[in-house]
Amino acid sequence: MAFSQEADKNKLKLYWEYLKDLPDNEAKQAVDSIIKNNQWFPKIAEIRETALKIKTENKRISEEQRIKNALPAPDDRIPISKLSQLAKEIGEKLSMNKSRETNQKPIKRSGRTSPPINPQEFERRKSVLKQQKKELGIA
Hints:
Layout: H1 9-19, H2 24-37, H3 44-70, H4 80-102, E1 107-109, E2 112-114, H5 119-136
Antiparallel strand pairs: 1-2
Helix pairs in contact: 2-3
């Protein structure tokens, strides 16, 4: 036994009751870590806290690995000179898809594309602006 005190059956049942929801690998890693680093028999809360830290660390490592695997190899990377052109092409394709959905042609303004305002929205905005001017004494 790693610690100087023995665990009786009632204590083991209690520990099992409050730790059984932990995944086996996280619980095992938590207990292994506690045995290596603590000199006293752990409380349930200590095991759960250590398991949560391990879960968080494993998730962080997994996410870093996923990102690393998703990145292209250095020789596959896109040169910066082509990046802006690709972004522009993607923006144009998205704009075309949006205009197809609304069956309206997009309005071009200073290189950017935005869908036209429908007549009801235009009248609503005009009415709101007129009301605001009236309240301010500008109209």
